[in-house]
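USER:
I would value a second opinion on how I read folds in token form. Give me a protein, with the fold worked out from its sequence. Write it directly below this note and I will take it from there.

ASSISTANT:
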Amino acid sequence: MKKTLYLKFILAYFIFGVFSFIIVTTFVPSMTREHLIREKAEDLYVEATRISNTYATGLYTSETDLETVKEQLDSLAVYLDSTIRIINPSGRLVLDTDVSLNVEDEIVIENFDPTATSSSYYMVNNFFGNFDSKMLSVFSPITSSYMVKGYVVIHCDMMRIEDSCNRMLNISYITLVILLLLSLIILIFFTEMVYIPLRKITYATEQYAAGNMHYEFQVESDDEIGYLAVCLNYMASQIASSEDDQKKFIANVSHDFRSPLTSIRGYLEAMIDGTIPPEMHDKYLNIVLNETERLTKLTNSLLSLNNLNTKGMLLERTDFDINSIIRSTAATFEGTCRKKTIAIEMILTGDRMFVNGDKEKIQQVLYNLLDNAIKFSHHDSVIRVETSVKNNKLFVSVKDTGIGIPKDDLKLIWDRFYKSDFSRGKDKKGTGLGLSIVKEIIGCHGEHINVISTEGAGSEFIFSLLLADKDDDED
């Protein structure tokens, strides 16, 4: 897999930085310059209008003299840091704050054209060649008797505006650098919080895809990525456990099939080659028959367990009398119990007790539990089957006083083909599937089964069933 996500993110960060730099260096300077020029022009135009309406108008109406106006405008020019001029429409310079007043020295601005500003009230140039550098020039007409007598023109050196523009641009550049640094922090955060965990998860999936289901990894995060990592770890552990169970299952099946097949083949070969004399054939044929019955039982158990894995899809639920099922199932073990002098004591709630479930499957549960109880019970002992009602549930208990189950084996008895070392000597014909089938059946019914056991004292299995809504007899 090409690992390009991080490179794409780096590329995106680089593109963001380049475009940010281009925008700041291309558009921001011109926008800032235009803004400062317009702002300065507006301020100067206000002053020019005020001068044209006061000092300049008084000058043309002879209400004040030129020296007084020059003195006032000189002070104002210093305040505005600009040059103030009064110019006649013909271009003759009447007053200039940068030049001493001399009425005999006439100065005319060549090509003076107040309409050159078009619809605006300012211009940015060398003012008809009158200055060596660019100036911001603001016009305000001087009117008297509805006639334009002249113009108040205020000049501001563009260098001052450019300096202000550069200072503001420096702030913009510093801000850009700060933003890029902050975005770099985001990149680092992405690397630590997203990319590295994602890389761990990706590597883990590669390991799982290669079959290494025991690979473990850890992501310290409380968000969705951390949850994904936990789920992936859990999934892998479940698959690994399933694979281990599958291997164990195959090994157990192979062992349980191989043992009787080896015995059958050995006895048959011995009978064929004469090792076993003809007069003993009947004895060993019965042994072979018992081994074939063991294989048949094992095959049927596997088929039953496979069908039960559909999680209740094959259940045929009906209302039936559990007491009659308990009695009939116990009766099937009469011969076995007589041989071991074992008694089955039944303490049942009521004469009849109807429950809801699959009648045949529940009978199989009772058969397997009683079969186990008889196998592991001592001679001259008692097996107790008891029922009790709590809320809307019926609880069935099968209790023996046999060898019991070691504490370390209690959690393993439900596993397929599991046999504790202590029970192998007692259960030579068992398949190790009985309790697995029991648990699957009870689970398909949506109920639970528990076991209480003390080694050397016996075991008790308790499972629950849902009570029926009616008390009518089953046909």
About this structure: Residues 5-163 form a domain with the Beta-Lactamase fold (CATH 3.30.450.20). Confidence is low (pLDDT under 50) at residues 421-429. The chain has three domains: 5-163, 224-308, 317-467. The longest strand covers residues 147-157.
